[in-house]
Design brief:
heterodimer; A: mainly alpha; 3 helices; B: mainly beta; four-stranded antiparallel beta sheet
């Protein structure tokens, strides 16, 4: 599982049924990438929450 | 049975002499122009709502000509901790956002029981369209997720690896 996979899986774990699009062409999976997400459903997550969840995967 | 003879003594190089055949002598089926767009980014969605990925416009030279559209789309499926059967849909729409071709991206069987495996493959959409216009006509590729995470891969960093493309050919009537 790549860091990118961990990020999207973490979003699902923390906020089920999240709908969004994201562009990822390699590189760092960080707050900048998280903030680039185009949310289609409502988002209440923060990067710190997602990052913490990623650490458990 | 009628027989036709081509006098090869008249042939020069690799081209047939104009006295035998000319492009203007072909009444139908001529490819008048070809344009292409190459998708250069990797895009992912978890949404069941269509989003436009990339597009290409063509301006037909006559209202009676047709457009052959060929789209090749490299995709990635990921269970995303949601699905053992991640899937998505790709569709080709015309200038009025009317769907003219659609294909489904499916993992062949159970990708994994822990819903974290990847599945990469390629889909091709082809359609002959009759836009009946001499104005610019745009064709778009859109995508949406069914379950899991659905990604469309592009050629990045100048590489042609995994390139997703849309090619438009104007065919003379």
């Amino acid at each position: 599982m790549t860091d990118f996979d961990k990020m999207t899986t973490s979003i699902k774990n923390l906020q089920d049924n999240s709908e969004y699009t994201i562009q990822y062409n390699g590189g760092a999976v960080d707050e900048t990438l998280f903030n680039s997400i185009n949310w289609i459903s409502e988002n209440n997550l923060t990067w710190s929450q997602v990052s913490a969840e990623m650490g458990t995967l | 049975m009628a027989l036709s003879t081509i006098d090869l003594s008249q042939q020069s190089g690799t081209s047939l002499p104009s006295s035998i055949v000319t492009a203007s002598g072909l009444s139908t089926g001529k490819i008048l122009q070809v344009v292409q767009s190459i998708h250069t980014t990797n895009d992912y969605t978890t949404s069941g709502t269509y989003a436009t990925l990339f597009s290409k416009a063509i301006t037909p030279s006559s209202t009676s000509n047709t457009i052959l559209v060929i789209a090749t789309v490299n995709f990635n499926l990921y269970g995303n901790g949601t699905s053992s059967f991640p899937n998505g849909t790709i569709e080709l729409v015309d200038n009025g956002d009317n769907m003219i071709a659609r294909s489904f991206a499916n993992a062949s069987g159970n990708v994994s029981t822990d819903q974290t495996d990847q599945w990469n493959s390629v889909l091709t959409l082809q359609q002959i369209d009759s836009p009946s216009t001499t104005s610019a006509h745009t064709y778009k590729i859109r995508y949406k997720a069914g379950s899991g995470r659905f990604g469309i891969l592009g050629a990045s960093g100048g590489s042609s690896d995994n390139a997703s493309t849309i090619t438009l050919m104007e065919i003379g009537a």
